[in-house]
Design brief:
The structure is a single chain. It is built from four helices and twelve strands; from the N terminus they run βββαβαββαβαβββββ. The two termini are 14 Å apart. By secondary structure, the protein is α/β, with parallel strands linked by helices. The protein has a single domain (2-161), classed as 3-Layer(aba) Sandwich (Dihydrofolate Reductase, subunit A), CATH 3.40.430.10. Strand 4, helix 2 (43-48) and strand 5 (59-63) form a beta-alpha-beta unit. Strands 1, 4, 5, 6, 7, 8, 10, 11 and 12 form a nine-stranded mixed β-sheet that branches. It has a three-stranded antiparallel β-sheet with strand order 3-2-9, with no helix packed on it.
Amino acid sequence: MNLIAAVDRNWAIGLRNELLVRIPEDHKFFRQMTTGKVVVMGRKTLESFPGGRPLKNRTNLVLTRDPSFHVKDALCVHTMEELFEELSHYEDEDIYVIGGESIYRQLLPACTVAHITKIDYAYEADVWFPNLDQDPNWVITGDSEEQTYFDLEYRFFRYERKR
């Protein structure tokens, strides 16, 4: 399985259920990587999307503890067992974990690749991604040239779990 996230220099990912910043090239990268694939998210991440609607041209899986939560065009599961049962129908490389914080933390052990956009700025935040640079199980296997969006500098990194 894959993870995909944009993080600031402190590995923060959001504030008040919103992204820290919207960078068009990062959104384009996210679309390229996840279109036609399976995306796994928590309920709050889904609710942060425009209109609270699932992402188009993807299979949307929402993990929520609320058994009454349902949304059109997404499959809602309520336990890790249900989630892994549903994910067993797909190829690992076609599955992308897209947030939020608790979903990333719960599914990190099952993932082998992480696509991380690192933004060289420290934002005010209330949710964080696990710091893969401090995790000895992960190694950087690819990175882009430095990119700039207005005055923000960022880079795309690929991490892989050590085997």
